[in-house]
């Protein structure tokens, strides 16, 4: 049996995953694995908990203030100090006293002051791009790194192999060096 036939038989018996692992350099596999872990953890963190709909926590003023802006100052309501900020706080306190939850309070604030009152953009429509563009940029950077890193490493190895070794010392230079070193001991 020739070497070519043995390789063909080995390839046929080897699972496809192992073939892919042999084709990709280890650094590329590591970068791809890290990108996959980051993507999965990001998706898991953004998913709402299963029991979030069944339990409605009571909204509080500090909790809402962190999530809304003063419409005149354009800063978070929790640090704003203006008559408009005081009116917004009073409006929120009135809604909390009525027993409304966080989502209802935010909806009422948007109805009263417009979408500029929310600190974070909406998660639908055109506002979704505020979340998707940074994610896409990170994925593009990771893909670029996965492509370029093996090239850089190959280039560095080629340069290291092409460098000339250091010239050997002559006998007189070696004796002078030894004499100098002995003086400093």
Structural overview:
It is a single chain. The protein is mostly helical and 185 residues long. Among the domains are: 61-120, no CATH class; 122-154. Helices cover 65% and strands 0% of the residues. The chain has helices at residues 3-13, 16-23, 26-46, 61-65, 83-97, 102-113, 129-162, 171-184. α3 (26-46) packs antiparallel against α7. The longest helix is centred in the last third of the chain and has 34 residues, at 129-162.
Total E-strand runs: 0
User: Counting H and I runs of at least 4 residues, what is the number of helices?
Assistant: 8
What is the N-to-C succession of helices and strands?
A: HHHHHHHH
Task: Please give the share of residues in helix.
Answer: 55-70%
Task: Provide the structure class.
Answer: mainly alpha
Strand portion? under 5%
Instruction: Please give the radius of gyration in angstroms.
Output: 32 Å
- Unreliable runs, pLDDT <50, ≥5 residues? none
Mean pLDDT: 80
How would a textbook summarize the main sheet? none
Coarse morphology: elongated
Ends: how far apart?
66 Å
Write the layout of secondary structure elements.
Blueprint: H1 3-13, H2 16-23, H3 26-46, H4 61-65, H5 83-97, H6 102-113, H7 129-162, H8 171-184
In short:
The chain is 65% helix and 0% strand. With 185 residues, the protein is mainly alpha-helical.
């Amino acid at each position: 049996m020739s070497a070519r036939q043995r390789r063909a038989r080995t390839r046929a018996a080897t699972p496809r995953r192992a073939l892919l692992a042999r084709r990709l350099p280890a650094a590329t596999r590591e970068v791809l694995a890290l990108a996959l872990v980051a993507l999965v953890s990001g998706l898991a963190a953004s998913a709402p908990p299963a029991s979030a709909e069944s339990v409605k926590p009571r909204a509080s003023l500090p909790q809402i203030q962190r999530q809304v802006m003063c419409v005149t100052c354009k800063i978070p309501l929790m640090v704003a100090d203006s008559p408009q900020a005081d009116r917004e706080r009073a409006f929120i306190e009135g809604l909390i006293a009525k027993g409304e939850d966080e989502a209802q309070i935010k909806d009422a604030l948007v109805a009263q002051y417009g979408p500029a009152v929310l600190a974070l953009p909406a998660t639908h429509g055109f506002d979704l791009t505020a979340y998707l563009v940074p994610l896409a940029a990170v994925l593009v950077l990771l893909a670029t790194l996965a492509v370029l890193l093996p090239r850089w490493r190959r280039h560095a190895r080629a340069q290291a192999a092409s460098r000339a070794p250091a010239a050997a010392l002559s006998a007189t230079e070696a004796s002078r060096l030894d004499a100098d070193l002995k003086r400093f001991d």
